Amino acid sequence: MAVETNEFRAEARFQRVSPQKARLVLDLIKGSGVQEALETVAFTKKRIAPVIHKVLTSALDNAKYLSDERGLDLDVDNLYVKTAIANDGPRMKRIRPAPMGRAFRYQRRLTHIIVTVAERPLVEETKGKKTKSKTAA
Hints:
Elements: E1 7-15, H1 19-29, H2 34-42, H3 49-70, E2 79-97, E3 103-119, H4 125-136
Antiparallel strand pairs: 1-3, 2-3
Helix pairs in contact: 2-3
């Protein structure tokens, strides 16, 4: 019996931060509730944290809007961060002057941030009752 859950996503593309640095913040919020994730990102002291806060807020707004459009019964308090991904974007090639007329090449990395929120599946009460009866017997 497969339970269908709706997912709502938001993206921030071409952000001027390396994916490794963005993943440090995204790993903090992955799997947590939306309200807890918003509070966590609000107090994180990384440069990318306000951008992730904006993406998470956008995903929450997308969930509210699309559930109204589709006529779904969505419990906003039951939403959680299902996936939070920082993918590589294109790299900007730059040149830094070096001694004796040489030039060193370096790359500025860009990131595509994707946040997906979904509603937590409800735990069936019958399963909980079965486990209690087994431990009591």
